[in-house]
Amino acid sequence: MRDPSEIFDRLRTAEESNPLPEVKTRISWLERLRSAVLSRRADIRTAVWEDFRKSPVEADLTESIPVLLELKTALGNLASWTAPKRLRSTFPLWGLSSRLQHNPKGVVLILSPWNYPVNLSLGPLVSALAAGNRVIVKPSERVPHSSRLIANLIGDALPEDVATVVEGGVEVGAELLNLPFDHFYFTGGAAVGKEIMHAAARHLSSVTLELGGKSPAVVDGSVDLDQCAEKIVRGKFMNGGQTCIAPDYVVVHDKLYDDFVKAILTHAVRIEARAEMSALIDDRHEARLEAMLADAVKEGAILHHSDLHRSGLTIATGVPLTCKLMQEEIFGPILPVLRYRSEEELIGIVRTNPSPLTMYVFSNDDRLVNRLAAKLKTGSICINETLLHFVHPHLPFGGVGQSGSGRSHGRAGFETFSNSVPIMRQNARRGIIPLVYPPKGRFGDWARELLFRILGRW
Fold first, then answer.
1. Do 184 and 146 meet the contact criterion of CB atoms below 8 Å apart?
2. Where are the alpha helices (H) located in 116-254, listed in sequence order?
């Protein structure tokens, strides 16, 4: 295994020798990365299948295509993103011109998770390269085939002094956290996210945390039940439920609760019959989910279609808010379905957990949607759909509070990995402000008073 410190030093040396790579250089990096992803589509399918039985269709839709979309967006907009932005001046600052320039942060670390190993390694890498950074990517050791694929893909596509992959377990991650990166980008759980923040604090480095949480799906009485149920099932059981923005539980209006449960079960059985769902990542994760189900049953929950195994689906009804299913992020193919009778009860249920990464609202009542958006804090809101907001190239993605900090994707991702440098220039011989500098006597007093009056009117 290569020494992380030596790799970091090589990237730091390259960054110091060329701290602001030209746009055409960054474009060449991105084009080489795109060619590598396109040429390895079959390899990506094979790697994620070997790691946790993700189907080829899901591999294309959730790993390769989102990365290619991110690349297309960056390549098509990089020139405008990097162009200095002229800023308007204002009356007291007459004579000054200002602009905003985006500079690379420097050498950055991307720590990617196991659940979408290719997507969540290469997606942030696109943003980091577009911003002109040097990058170390550390994939999860829980997906060894995908980790090896990512290392080979990046190694073949990019020079080692631009981006490189460091593989290994927890001890390697600890070594990397001791290095003075200029930015830490982490996708994963809140517990490790806190460790990342501690590490960044030692270096006074910036951090982006893409975490998770209990993302609710709200269903009122104004929607088509069958379409709504199908979208929620698809969103929940994509990747075997191992998705940070998957609907964690559903809260359904009391008047359509029973019909909704039947519709959910119908679509869940259809998905399992087609053998479309990914397996759970390992026995440890399966044991954790089994324990959550056992706790829910003990608390009075009823399980439907509950043969939980490596490709099983479980719907839970009658779930009390006090059980683990409603207090911890599930991150698996278990969907609690709760009922609500009033808007106040609905808000109370959602507020029993910290702010989620996403809130799904299935409703044709715009007033209800607006009230929920105003009263409930969340990283994002998706109306009458699931998951698709993640792949929208121009929508910033990220959490709030316990579900994360910072934004990614498209221009937001470019800005995350950039330092916005304001640059101001005095073009006039003197300007207005010097007229009120002391000592100016009575004239200075009059000029300052006039300035207060003018600003007060604005």
1. no
2. 119-130, 144-157, 170-177, 190-203, 225-237
Strands 314-317 and 334-340: parallel
- DSSP string covering 2-34, please? --HHHHHHHHHHHHHHSSS--HHHHHHHHHHHH
Distance, in Å, from the CA atom of 404 to the CA atom of 407, rounded to the nearest integer, reads 9
DSSP code of 433?
G
- For 32, counting Cβ atoms within 10 Å of its Cβ (0-12 exposed, 13-18 middle, 19+ buried), the class is middle
Return left, alpha or beta for 166; rule: phi > 0 is left, psi -120 to 50 is alpha, else beta: beta
| 34 contacts 65 by C-beta, under 8 angstroms | no
Active-site residues, by number, are 210, 244
* DSSP code of residue 430: S
What distance, in Å, lies between the first and last C-alpha atoms of the chain? 63
- 103's enclosing H/E stretch is strand 96-104
Task: Report which of 245, 29, 232, 5 is spatially closest to residue 119, judged by C-alpha positions.
Answer: 245
317 exposure class (CB count in 10 Å sphere: 0-12, 13-18, 19+): middle
Using CA atoms, how far residue 82 sits from 332, 375, 390, in Å, is: 40, 37, 24
Q: Are 289 and 235 in contact (CB under 8 A)?
A: no
Q: Across the 458 residues of the chain, what is the mean pLDDT of every consecutive 10-residue run?
A: 89 95 97 97 96 91 96 96 86 78 97 96 98 97 96 96 95 95 95 94 95 93 88 90 94 93 86 70 87 90 67 84 92 93 94 93 93 94 94 92 92 96 79 66 74 74
> What DSSP string describes 382-408?
EES-SSGGGG-TTS-B---GGGEES-B
Angle (CA) 289-294-295 rounded to 5° is 95
Phi, psi of 106 (to 5 degrees): 135, -115
